[in-house]
Design brief:
Layout (H helix, E strand, L loop, with lengths): L2 H28 L1 H4 L3 H11 L3 H4 L1 H13 L1 H10 L1 H20 L6 H31 L3 E4 L2 E4 L9 H25 L2 H32 L3 H22 L3 H25 L5 E4 L9 E3 L7 H28 L6 H8 L1
Antiparallel strand pairs: 1-2, 3-4
Helix pairs in contact: 1-5, 1-8, 1-9, 1-12, 5-6, 7-8, 8-9, 8-12, 9-10, 9-12, 10-11, 10-12, 11-12
């Protein structure tokens, strides 16, 4: 296996980690107006992700940096073609981060309500746009060759195909369900019961959308890998709904995480196994001389990839170990007593 393919798989792993971990952050943020019936409830909801949300975003930074170094043509084409969508997405992430820090800076209900709204919006926008972006990549985009690389020619509207929009709705619903299950795992009492109920409704509603999206993904590229990964995502989603229904919070959370992981892997698998690939950005308007950006023609030099591989062998285990340690330290449930004690 050559290094360019190894780095395609590593970047896929980094994005899977990002969507699984930051996905429940987005879901928790979106659940705030539904589950946060009192200020104590809202503080418990936010405190559930308070120690880890910024650590989860580390995977986005690592994935973006790896993409830039390992596949500069992919990075340049995607970031130029997706510029407006990514700008809105990043603004959402910034607004959400600022809201977490600012909402408790003034003892005013109106002040906190404004920042809570920012948390909801800053969580929903990335949850939607990430799905749109990756579904667009898997489906293919209008491109033309440009200075040894590629240039997207369709503009922002080319991202808003029915398949891409369905992908965005799927990630929006999956992340909401993932976050609600996480809250059921991290809280107790009445808030826990309401989180269970929200997770059940979100999993049921998302299940219909997700099955249609995964079936469409398989129809576009019915290779064994895509079929298996899509089927695993669907099975994990059903399992999560069943486990949530019987109150097995840990298993339900593991299964929603598996659902997100398998769904993202199905999209990367579609790129990997598409005829003429493996691709990083297939063209929806291929010609005899240009079919899009492949793993081979978009990658950096072998020497660059070799240096990056040695760095990854050292750094990735450290990142994984530190993140596992952080989750272990902050594993306890967020109770009413703990929040009230912290207020005093």
């Amino acid at each position: 296996m050559d290094l360019s393919l190894i780095w395609f798989l590593l970047i896929g792993f980094m994005f899977v980690m990002y969507f699984v971990l930051d996905g429940f952050d987005f879901g928790v943020g979106m659940s705030l107006p539904v589950l946060g019936r009192s200020e104590t409830d809202r503080r418990r909801i936010i405190n559930a992700i308070g120690p880890v949300w910024d650590l989860n975003e580390t995977w986005l930074i690592v994935a973006g940096a790896s993409l830039f170094a390992a596949f500069p043509e992919w990075y340049a084409t995607m970031f130029s073609g997706f510029f407006l969508a990514l700008l809105v997405l990043l603004l959402g992430l910034i607004v959400r981060a600022v809201s977490f820090e600012f909402r408790h800076q003034r003892d005013s209900a109106r002040w906190r309500a404004g920042w809570d709204l920012c948390i909801v919006v800053g969580s929903a926008i990335p949850a939607l746009l990430w799905g749109v972006a990756f579904a667009s990549l898997a489906q293919g985009l209008p491109m033309e060759p440009h200075q040894g690389g590629a240039l997207m020619t369709g503009g922002l509207l080319s991202l808003l195909s029915p398949y891409a929009l369905l992908g965005g709705i799927t990630t929006l619903g999956l992340f909401l369900a993932h976050g609600a299950v996480f809250l059921a795992l991290k809280t107790d009492g009445d808030l826990k019961q309401r989180a269970h109920a929200l997770a059940g409704r979100a999993l049921l509603g998302t299940g219909v959308v997700a099955v249609v999206f995964l079936a469409w993904t398989v129809a576009q590229n019915p290779t064994p890998l895509v079929v298996v990964l899509s089927a695993l995502a669907a099975v994990a989603l059903v399992g999560a709904w069943l486990m949530n229904g019987v109150g097995r919070d840990g298993r339900a959370f593991a299964l929603t995480a598996a659902t997100v992981a398998f769904a993202v892997l199905a999209l990367f698998g579609s790129l990997l196994t598409r005829a003429g690939g493996p691709f990083v950005m297939p063209a929806s308007n291929p010609t005899a001389d240009f079919v899009g950006l492949t793993v081979a023609n978009a990658s950096s030099s072998p020497y660059t990839l070799e240096v990056m591989t040695w760095a990854a062998l050292i750094c990735l285990p450290l990142v994984l170990a530190y993140q596992a340690w952080t989750y272990w330290v902050f594993r306890r449930r967020v109770t009413v007593a703990a929040v009230e004690a912290a207020a005093h």
